[in-house]
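re: that chain from earlier
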Amino acid sequence: MNDETKTEFKDLVIADKKFQSRLIIGTGKYADFETMQKAHDLSGAEMVTVAVRRIELDKSKEDSILNFIDTKRYTLLPNTAGCYSADDAIRTLRLARELLDGHNLVKLEVLSDSDTLYPNVVETIAAAKVLIK
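^ sequence. v structure.
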């Protein structure tokens, strides 16, 4: 890449946190936790989404996914994967906040159906309004 085609990106700032990478990587669909760790390391991402409804978040348990994510290196984004209503999403993120010691950055998604996984925009906005308050 020559100097004419280089694009300089400013840091991404979310809630007073600065990120150099705009890539957000997930935790699902890996063969095992070690493979997930390697993917995270190689990705250059600084944010990792964690599906609250699908995984074990109790760090005291050996098989908790949180024991395999370096939370000093990565910002966790608990997400509402698998939620089909604003109420489910709100409840899920409040649970995540308790389990993750007051964590406030999240990835909010409310789905319309399990076949297409299209978002339900009305329910997502309704959940966002409640969570922002």
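The chain has three helices and five strands.
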